[in-house]
Amino acid sequence: MTVDRSRLIDRLALPFYFLLSAILLYPLSARLGEVLPGPRVDTWQNLWNYWWLGHAFSSDSGQPFFTPDLFYPYGADLSFHTLSLLNTIWAVPLGDFFSPVLLLGLSLFLAFPIGAWSMYLLTRDCIESRSGALLAGFIYAFFPHHLDQIYSHLNLTSQHLLPFFLLFLLRLFRNPSWKNGLATGLFLALQAYGCLIYMMQAFLVIALLGLARLIRGGGNAPVRAWLPGLAGGIVLFVVLILPMVIPALRLSSERGEFRYKQVRPAFSASLETLASPSVFHPIVGERVRKLNRRYDNLPRGATAHLGLGLIVLALFGTASRLGTLRTFGIASILFVVLAMGPAFQIRIGQETGIPLPYALMEKIPILRFLRVPNRFLVMASLFLAPLAGAGLARFLAGGPKLRMGGLMLAALLFFEYLPTPIRTAPISGPAFCDLLKERATSGAVLDVPLFSGGQSTIYMFNQTHHGRPIVAGYVSIPPPTAGLIVQEDPSFRWLADTGLKSEIDSIPSGSPVEAMRRLGIGDVVLHKDFDPMSDRRTGPPGMDWPEKTEATSWYWRHTTVTGSVPHKRMREYRKMLQVWLGRPYYEDDRVALFAVPES
Q1: C-alpha span between 460 and 70 (Å, rounded)
Q2: Where are the alpha helices (H) located in 369-489, listed in sequence order?
Q3: HSE-up of residue 172 (Cα within 13 Å, Cβ side)
Q4: Buried (b) or exposed (e) across 48-82, using 16+ Cβ within 10 A?
Q5: Distance between CA atoms of 310 and 389, rounded to whole angstroms?
Q6: Taking Cα atoms as reference points, which of 442, 432, 307 lies closest to residue 380?
Q7: CA separation (Å) from 465 to 40, 51, 430?
Q8: Biggest alpha carbon–alpha carbon distance for the chain
Q9: Are 222 and 208 within 8 A, CB to CB?
Q10: Which helix (H) or strand (E) holds 138?
Q11: Angle at which helices 323-339 and 308-318 pack, to 10 degrees?
């Protein structure tokens, strides 16, 4: 390959990945600003993030890490909430010109071509083959576990800076300098603002590669040569994340302990999920699901498929004489094992009781908040992608049969990672929010059912349109203020009991009206959408159901905001709200709006 041709490939790599992403992420790529993937619970939360940051920086406080507008009247600590500032803060000045739907859709899309390009650069730094580097970029960006995050997790989609971090870390080890050390710290800090989970995992990468260098006697450079640069990079990292850390320490000390969510077996990789094709594959996915009905309970984000093509190519890459690639092989195995969770599983959700290394992490105060083991697959792909690229390079450097074998493995890998067309839904603001906006001076909004979990994100989406404080809310790691409202009056506890796990059997005898006035609640919204017997002509607020067929019903059951409250309990809600507050001042097929009477 001539020098000019090689440089041309380097220059065209990023445009190539943009074109590839536009094709593989269709129809999202063609309808940015109109639709979003899914949507799921965290989609509404992500939209709220864009609204909140614009609202926070336009107010007097300018404090993004605490909001008075959720869990009213107490507010919510957002220190450990997935604000994903790397993806959202750049959009603050654009919020007056573009909708949150466009800004969120654009952020989700850009993660793929940029992630592929950064992996291309990392792989080119490890091997000479541009063909291998192009394949590595595709693997990293469209790794099935990563692609699944587009349906709900903006922060987990944001892995595109990790290859830059690893690139400069490796350069620091090879050619110690302050420049490489500071660049490592810079990209680590930027990754922290994109996704705290990947930042914490990245420190394990530093520890692992640093240990490997110590065992090998420092490689090309002794420890004393690269250690100062690494220390400088970590110092820069700490300085850059102080705006996020200081409020976290202060607010968490003032407002008590955060709640820890336990690890769910379904979110740990098993031998079955690692070996089996994804149930969301456009061609074989439905057959895979029918062969194993346990996949019916496998949610988005739990995909753990590696692919036969990736495994074979990565094994060939690991066999290279390059010490760095051998270290990559060890690292990829370690992170796959961590992705398998605290106990070994052969089949989905069936723990054998054999402990695995992740069990130790659950005992470490900070690392225990990772709580979803299979997210370590992203770190595994960070090392597997260059290995597969190196493996392809070895095949292409051989004879005709080896070259043909390498191309067939690359084609197999592309087929295994082929995504189904991105399922999208149009997003629009409910009409009743305009009425709530007009009554902004009346106080906060109480949404019924008074959810305290992920389903209340639909209320947060409505808030982006009416702009008023809400009693409900959902924060990634529940803050100490979550659920305090039920202590104010027995009626609030009853409104929060959806009848699924009934704690209060009888309707409260007293009226919560005085408590509502004291707390500053001005309007109550009864969401009839959660009644399974209501007439759902268009589905949950803000989206339309697609045409349901036998082939799509299972998909939509696992990728949209679903759930209901027993019809009997919804009738009780309606009856008592009318007794307490009078007839609704507005009602349609989705909601009934009640005004809290003035004293």
Answers
A1: 8
A2: 376-396, 400-417, 432-438, 457-466
A3: 29
A4: bbbbbbbbbeeeeeeebbbbebbbbbbbbbbbbbb
A5: 9
A6: 307
A7: 18, 9, 8
A8: 88
A9: no
A10: helix 130-141
A11: 140
| pLDDT for residue 2 | 60
Distances (CA, A) of 114 to 8, 14, 238, 394: 18, 7, 25, 26
Q: Rounded to an integer, what distance in angstroms lies between the CA atom of residue 48 and that of residue 54?
A: 10
Distances in Å between the Cα of 133 and the Cα atoms of 53, 139, 400 are 37, 10, 21
Q: Are 99 and 86 in contact (CB under 8 A)?
A: no
Instruction: Give the DSSP H/E element, type plus range, for residue 82.
Output: none
Alpha-carbon gap, residue 209 to 199, rounded angstroms: 15
pLDDT tens digit sequence for 20-57: 999 999 999 999 988 888 767 788 889 999 999 888 88
Nearest to 250 by CA among 411, 426, 63: 63
Please give the Cα distance from 49 to 47 (Å, whole number).
Answer: 5
Distance CA 413, CA 75 (A): 48
Q: If we measure between CA atoms, which residue out of 14, 125, 113 comes closest to residue 386? A: 125
- CB crowding 150-167: b at 16 or more within 10 Å, else e: bbbbbbbbbbbbbbbbbb
User: In which residue ranges of the chain is pLDDT below 70?
Assistant: 1-3, 39, 60-62, 217-221, 247-266, 293-301, 321, 349, 365-369, 499-505, 532-563
Q: What does residue 558 show for φ and ψ, rounded to 5 degrees?
A: -110, 5
**The predicted structure's pLDDT at residue 552:** 43
Nearest CA-CA partner of 161 in 118, 199, 122: 118
**Residue 406: how many other CB atoms lie within 10 Å:** 24
* Cα R_g (the chain), whole angstroms: 26
pTM above 0.90, yes or no: no
Residues 6+ apart with CB under 8 A from 453: 474
Distance CA 71, CA 73 (A): 6
Q: Can you tell me the distance from the alpha carbon of 398 to that of 309, in angstroms, rounded to the nearest whole number?
A: 18
195 in Cβ contact with 80 (< 8 Å): no
Burial (0-12, 13-18, 19+ Cβ within 10 Å), 290:
exposed
Query: For residue range 217-263, what is the model confidence (pLDDT) as tens digits?
Result: 645 567 788 889 999 999 999 999 988 877 666 655 555 555 555 66
Going by C-alpha positions, the residue among 477, 79, 474 that lies closest to residue 250 is: 79
Q: Residues for the chain: how many in total?
A: 599
Distance CA 158, CA 146 (A): 9
459: Cβ contacts below 8 Å, ≥ 6 apart? 445, 447, 451, 470, 472, 473, 525
Nearest to 104, CA basis, from 61, 165, 40 = 40
Is the distance from CB of 65 to CB of 77 less than 8 angstroms?
A: yes
CA distances from 262 to 157, 259, 266, 413 (A): 22, 10, 12, 34
Q: Which two tokens stand for residue 99?
A: 């909708």
Structure tokens at 296: 């019916």
In angstroms, the CA 60 to CA 102 distance is: 27
Lookup result for tokens 């600003």: 33
On the CB side of 400, how many CA atoms lie within 13 Å of its CA?
0
Relative to beta strand 521-527, strand 444-448 is parallel
